[in-house]
From TrEMBL, chains A, B, C, D, E, F:
One of its GO terms (molecular function) is manganese ion binding. Disulfide bonds join 25-40. The lineage of its organism: Eukaryota, Viridiplantae, Streptophyta, Embryophyta, Tracheophyta. InterPro entries: Cupin_1, Germin, RmlC-like_jellyroll, RmlC_Cupin_sf. This is Germin-like protein. Residues 54-200 form the Cupin type-1 domain. CDD domains: cupin_OxOx.
């Protein structure tokens, strides 16, 4: 009943007018981003490789004994416009992730193995919400609040961390913000009530000046 | 009381500082789109023609006995940033629009003439919501769900179809997705439970390979 | 220099006026949702337990030899308003996830172990984008498109699956939409071009009527 | 190969956990709306009738010789959360729609029959963009700008009008805002530069006081 | 315990991968805007000057005896993507801001000094909501509605005006829209019910033609 | 030509069908908020008072020698759904606003009088962007970043502060988050590298325990 030659005509007629059907918008990361994300890479140059990120593996531990492998939009342009990003996080026994914030992202910790103690501090009542997590646990750390994590267990802990709200989440590490730059020491003292000696000591550790 | 020469000064002074008042953002479809749409055409080159689409007419019926004339952002750049698009739809007696989905748009059928049977299938309980529509009826088909339409009446049916949620809605026709490409036949069988002979037959009809 | 009694006054004065600082909005899932999500649970009843989901574990395999454990807003109210959700996915050797769509969510597969072949079909050119994934891979399957997965490897495959765009993603399984309900068989035939015998057979398998 | 009793188990297991899959959110218009729309009607009470509006027909002409039949969320709760609404518009020969604005909606005029002259005025350069439309034409009138329409043709004109940006668009009719209320006449004069006699006359016509 | 040379390695390793952390998106106002705003200026060229606007001062009164100094995105690119803008507003005794609308912005008047009478007209019941404000008052004028202001006090009034919803709010002044352009006088009469003599007179005042 | 009795019919017919035109959505702050804000107060109970906030005045200085008067949605329900809020800020000579963040809001400082030194620290390069502001200056402090302010001038400084992005912005004061609660001291040490004596001292000052 359906004649093949008619079909061909149909196929052509239905695919031709849909020039710009936007199934996806892979980031063209060489162009300037906008508040809504990067311009889209031309669909004609997109292949399956654009949808796959292949380096989501454990990194080398840093001096805090954890590693962090980002899959943000700059590493994985398929996240463009999706409003989330991911990272692989591994932390050795005794490792600590110092207090920090993500200005524009809620953190979702999805445990893979080991035991991780994570906590955040609310802004209104300064309550510390803290929990020791293991495989099978997910924890949500609300956007923009100070939080930390540490491995108080007896084996390496690993997690997939999702950042909801940003394809390129910022990370503001408290110590680096206070002591790892040229923030004037007298001003640090005034705005934190820390003692000058304490500031001097940590400026030394974190290579700050001022 | 109001002196004209003062007025002139006022007119100049009020129009000059408003360099970029954005009453509209006509798509510059030659530039790369972003997740929020195309960059805006320069306002100084915009005329009334940019706000009018003149080809919203019945098209030629395809082999399914319906025609579809899109007014998407690529045809009508005034839709840029508005989050909707439109199409003119006409279907002959006996015509059928096979099962398909629009990934990013809720379909709103606004009947003009004739009688059209339209239906969609929900995802949770697989309920078929189906209705025969006539002039004076509007039907909403929720975003992303499989749906169909057919003319079981005795005269041509016509409708204005609005796509809410996208300026360039995608259309995924089930038969073309399964049989009109190089989708490996064994894989089609495995992921649909269709019999190999059925797949082979329809691959023949829809010009698929694999 | 800072007197403690003054401090106390300060603490009271700064915490008192911030009655409704919204650090988070845990879903009150007993209330009716709105298009933007559930109303917020009263902050005074929120504890750390509200931020932790403890059942993100492998489920029992179904007849397709895979299991799927959702952490959607109904299971994990902390996802309310975040625009994403998660699931634990495990698939035995030979298991297949039949073709399906998520109307309102982009799927992000984050491999944990084993080997998984996943693919999706674009709407414009009906291209099959397919890839065999292993640990260390992430794959993005764009919103609303038909996709599938299968374990063609030699061991169980496991993944964390993130749904970007919805706290309660819909799942429309093609076979259930066609054959697992009371969708009129003649209508299925007309809108899919499948043979009546094929439809009858699969209606039998999937317990459909009509 | 697939045993029916296993299937049944599967069907139950896949449908049970998806308690709140949100394919749609029909407005519960008896509850208070939020900035994102009305709460959703309970899915268990939704039928196909909720997706169909049956009164999209020509209304009775008013004294301006046009009729306007709204399908806004209060009349058609299926539009909840979609960000658009519709109306049927019919205008007799010589009819005029006086200058008005829609605060929160871009108007899209889709001509059905006859000839309609429509125009809007930009805010920066006060340019009048005006066009006489006929069947097959669509015109976009940007959000919030003063606009008008009139039938200068020789037969009744009809159109489907879509409001993009609002499920319940506001309509501010210039004459009613100035003359159809208790707006103090001296204040009207001061803020419009209209002559007192003109104001008095139109206050009389439009039943205003003050 | 923390060795400085290790720290240095850490600092480098944490800063290097974050190529595009988006703390801010200062407008590159020489590029074409998109519906979501201007592309971002390259972060490497951003200095503290980009975050400071230095000309938020009283302007020269116009013939209506008020001045208006905009800090919109074109003047202050730091507002890009924030969805608000600001202006400094000063009005002499007896000054009047004629009726006007902002299509895409809710106006928030924050009084600094003097006394200002402001009012807006609702669209549904044509109610005039009017209030005389003084220092310590904030008033919200909803998006897109006709509103006015005047100084009926005994000293200059000043306010900071915030526009919520737009980085470049439009201003449609009723008199200029009707009389300050080439809007055909017969058409003005038809669509406003103003008398031809009134139109002619104000066309003269506002330098309109037609 | 226009007969008054016809007009009356028109007025009734145009106002009657617009039952729910949403010109505004004043918060009903006694109901539970949603992720998009509070439900709307019934329009029939709204008066001009709902649009005016009358307490935007200088408060009593706290021990840091500044005062802060919020006009957030809980104080001023007219901000519901607008995505911004305001506060009046006054700081005595020598006053300091200690380091803090707003999780969900960009701060816009609009100077009224005096001289204020404000600064923020970026997350990627830990750069301190700092500037001394005076009347006529606006400064933008991006969302979620640590920032401070102090009055190093010779007179009181005053500013209007707008929070873009939230109707109820959170305020996380660093010292209170670290020392003004029961955050375990050993954990504070581990996650900040501060010395135990320093922590003990400031726990004493800020009334913390643990």
């Amino acid at each position: 009943m359906i004649h093949a030659f008619l079909l061909l005509a149909f196929l052509l007629s239905t695919t031709t007018p849909h020039v710009a059907a936007i199934d996806f918008c892979i980031a063209d990361i060489k162009s300037a981003p906008t508040p809504a994300g990067y311009p889209c890479k031309s669909p004609s140059t997109v292949t399956v490789d654009d949808f796959v990120f292949s380096n989501f593996v454990e990194g080398k531990p840093n001096i805090f004994n954890f590693s962090f492998t980002p899959a943000f939009v700059d590493q994985f342009p398929a996240f463009n416009g999706l409003g989330l990003s991911a990272s692989r996080f591994d932390i050795e026994v005794g490792g600590v992730v110092p207090l920090h914030t993500h200005a524009d992202a809620t953190e979702v910790i999805i445990m893979i193995q080991g035991s991780l103690t994570a906590g955040f501090i609310t802004s209104d009542t300064n309550t510390v919400y803290q929990r020791t997590l293991s495989a099978g646990n997910i924890m949500v750390l609300p956007k923009g609040l100070l939080h930390f994590a540490l491995n108080a267990g007896s084996q390496k802990a690993s997690a997939t961390v999702i950042f909801s709200g940003s394809v390129q989440p910022s990370v503001q590490l408290l110590d680096l913000a206070l002591f790892g730059n040229n923030f004037d020491s007298a001003l640090v003292a005034k705005t934190t009530f820390l003692d000058p000696e304490q500031i001097k000591k940590l400026k030394g550790v974190f290579k700050g000046t001022g």
